[in-house]
Amino acid sequence: MGTDPITFADLLRVANDPDFDRWREQIGRTGGCSDPIHLTGWTVTKDKTTGETLHRYSTEGEPGGRLRVACGNRRASRCPSCAWTYAGDTYHLIRAGLAGDDRRDIPATVREHPRVFATLTAPSFGPVHNRPEAGVCRCGTRHPENDSVLGTALDPATYDYAGAVLFNNHAGDLWHRFANRLRREIAQRAGITQRELKETARLSYGKVAEFQKRGAIHFHAVIRIDGPDGPENPPPPWATTNMLTDAIRAAVTHSYTTVTAPAVGDEPCRPFRWGRQLDIRPVKAFGDGSDITEQAVASYVAKYATKAAESTGTLDRRIGELSELDRHHVPDHTRRLIEACKVLDPLYPDRRLWAWAHMLGFRGHFSSKSRRYSTTLGDLRQTRADYRAAQERAALDLDDREPDTVLVLADWQYAGHGHTPGESALAATIARDLRLNRDTAREALADLAARDPGEWI
After folding, report:
1. Which InterPro entries match (predicted)?
2. Are 11 and 426 in contact (CB under 8 A)?
3. Domain regions of the chain by residue span
4. Mean pLDDT of the region 370-394
5. Dihedrals φ, ψ of 345, to 5°?
6. Which 3 state secondary structure label does DSSP give 35?
7. 33, 189, 221, 452: most buried, per Cβ within 10 A?
8. How sure is the predictor about 457, in pLDDT bands with cuts at 50, 70 and 90?
9. Cα separation of 244 and 197, whole Å?
10. What pLDDT digit, counting tens, does each position of 221-243 carry?
């Protein structure tokens, strides 16, 4: 598809601007961000003792008088570049809890702890078009893999759209109940009390939410048993993968693991439990013919950490009026789910269904973890910031100065965000080039690891 005339003309303007090289450098430093934040301001670096000015910077000399920094949005639909960074952080967070990370005091012995990859799904709200193992949907059609009707209701008149969005809305509460019940099930199988369990073992997890094609949320989770202080402690002898698997199955089906949307007006009381489809698989340390390896699990979780409900055709922002659905050609099945949020919102004001209608009622965190599962996203970001700060100090020839003797004064103002059409096209090209370079480097490392695995473990 060719570039439209307006974008092409603006692209030529940007490329021929005298400040183009500096603009391209700025966008490269953001990773090719699709919606960079524009800042104006200055910084002055001084020696505290002598008052000497060591460095001075102002945006007055930048293209357009602005400095562009990455937006940091985790949604791939908003900014593929920043989402790629977020996915990378999530990958390292999840993998650190599976394989260890010496830099963050997570020993490699965590591989010996009982750990599984579990998928908890939503219940049925009515039959939908699908691709069963038999190959023929209940509608009598063999749907191709990319058929747009997959996940939509066979009979919209009888499908429980209200139940679907209320389940999404309560999914976080349901996970909380499941986690609490799981601790009880583990203690019961170990023959100890819950208080004794806290003194001998700790349940850790990292999870991500994913929208199925029908618009119902489900969770993928790495679940692990540690010693009482976390991954650095070995689990007790009674903790096994089989026992953990059995405890998860019991916790999912227990009557305690239920949340209820009360009866209001014409809406009946709805008790919600997990769906019948439950998948639990042990996580393997290395490739042994199984696709549930540490790397595969971390990659899978990272992939869905940057997605939301956009795969169902909904919007990736809050909806002001239902008329927006027409302008954006939202599919009928998704539209009915959004309309259900609108109708139910005044009946359940504390659930804020309309505010989260673009998420089909779901208002929880898309990725989360227990406190001692592994490192944190904040720690990973700080590591990256410290690395860049060290680069900056070296570039300014400040390495020989003690940090406590350096004073940095700064004044920054928000000046807008985004790109012009031509800038947007060029930024996308920069992002693709950076991604290609990173992929090439990763493939080279993978090739080296394949030749000498022991060197890269």
Report:
1. RepSA, RepSA_streptomyces
2. yes
3. 5-74+378-456, 80-125+160-375
4. 89
5. -55, -50
6. coil
7. 33
8. very low
9. 14
10. 999 999 999 999 999 999 999 99
